[in-house]
Amino acid sequence: MQLIYTVLTGLVFGIGIALSGMMNPAKVLNFFDVMGSWDPSLAFVMAGALTVTFLGYRLVWKRDTPLFSDRFQIPTSTLIDAKLIGGSALFGIGWGIAGFCPGAAIPALGTGRWEVALFLCAVVGGFFLRRLLSNLPLKATS
Fold first, then answer.
1. Which residue range(s) make up the domain with 9?
2. Is 142 part of any domain?
3. How far is the C-alpha of 142 from the C-alpha of 1, rounded, in Å?
4. Residue 6 and residue 13: Cα distance in Å, rounded?
5. Which of 9, 85, 108, 122 is the most buried (most CB within 10 A)?
6. Which pLDDT tens digits describe the chain residue by residue (142 residues)?
7. Residue 28 near residue 95 (C-beta atoms within 8 A)
8. Quick check: is 139 in a domain?
């Protein structure tokens, strides 16, 4: 049953991304072009998503446990470190350059555009590169 809800959630997300036009990288890039052909529609999509999330969390937190787990998966760390800041910066730079965020790129695969596949390959490559680099021993400098 959990798999069915997961697929339905992904389907609703993908439909929302498609209807809002956020699969079109030009629309996203125009949001960042505040001195040129600025398109504020991404701000409205984000505001709508934040509103739904806010209301959804109010309903979810009334429950003792989630539907498909014995406890809520809540981050325990509040640490803001170089990894968090660096990862956030890389995400923003990649989004600004490509016009895709990974969440929107997955439904955009359905458009058949090679740029989408290339972007997602780069994202997956980045995951593997990060894992590879995190396993390297740190060299002491003297």
1. 2-134
2. no
3. 57
4. 11
5. 108
6. 888 988 998 899 889 888 888 888 888 889 888 898 899 998 999 999 999 999 999 999 999 998 888 888 888 889 999 888 988 998 888 888 888 888 888 888 888 889 999 999 999 998 888 888 887 776 655 5
7. yes
8. no
